[in-house]
Amino acid sequence: MDQKYSYLLINLCTVFFPLILSFDKKVHFYKKWRFIAPGLVITGLLYLIWDCIFTFKNVWSFNSDYIIGWRFFGLPLEEILFFVTVPFACIFIYECLIAYFTINISEKVVRIISVLLIFISFVLALLFADRLYSLINFLTVALVLLYTVLRPVKLNMGRFYVAYAVSLLPFYMVNGVLTAIPIVSYNNAENMGLRVGTIPFEDHFYSMSLILMNLIFFEHFRSKNGRRSETARV
């Protein structure tokens, strides 16, 4: 296969199993696609704006040898698809965990984890305020987590943290390939310069905020539909 399809193939592999296994009788994931779509659009638009700015500012760049060459607002088609395929796959992981395992983490423990992550994120944002990727990444995670602490959300944060931990396995596989080839190259002047293998440390926080925002919207629209169904039955 021509190497220019590499990034596109990574996207396809990311959603292959979630799509095939969407009809699992216990998960019934295909019935939930309509609740995923609004969050993909809303969160995707936000991250694409962020992506466009970072590409323009040379925070990262894309290797033209591994993309098909179709660009929109300076972004490869494959990069745009990334904000559909990755959240979709991560929500599938979240739903599978709920369907097959009992996940009960006390609110106190969840709150401690959230507050600790908020504190760490704010501190790192201050320490690396002169580096665009670090600053925006850590601030985004801190603010989204702060929202979940201060405002009631439909998402069970204990389940989120477990799902995020599990999602790190495919995260290392996908991001490892993207950064090792590299298909995506990072400008170390705009990040901490700390890497896990070939993956920038900040990518862990990037993934967390991306998944968290999508799950917040997913649970919001799912619960909203549930209320409508209850009203209809009354």
Set down the secondary structure blueprint.
Blueprint (H helix, E strand, L loop, with lengths): L5 H15 L12 H24 L3 E3 L8 E2 L2 E2 H24 L6 H21 L4 H19 L6 H24 L3 E3 L8 E2 L2 E2 L1 H32 L1
Antiparallel strand pairs: 1-4, 2-3, 5-6
Helix pairs in contact: 1-3, 2-3, 2-7, 3-6, 3-7, 4-5, 5-7, 6-7
Q: Which ranges are low-confidence, i.e. pLDDT below 50, for 5 or more consecutive residues?
A: 229-234
* Multimerization state: single chain
Terminal CA distance = 57 Å
The main sheet orders its strands as: 1-4
Summed over residues and divided by their number, the pLDDT gives a mean of 94
Name its key features.
two-stranded antiparallel ribbon; single chain; 68% helix; mainly alpha; globular; 6 strands; 234 residues; disordered C terminus
What does this structure look like?
By secondary structure, this protein is mostly helical. 68% of the residues lie in helices and 6% in strands. The chain is built from 7 helices and 6 strands; from the N terminus they run H-H-E-E-E-H-H-H-H-E-E-E-H. The strands form 3 sheets. A two-stranded antiparallel sheet has the order 1-4. Strands 2-3 form a two-stranded antiparallel ribbon. It has a two-stranded antiparallel sheet with strand order 5-6. A hairpin with a 2-residue loop joins strand 2 and strand 3. The radius of gyration is 18 Å and the shape is globular. The C terminus is likely disordered.
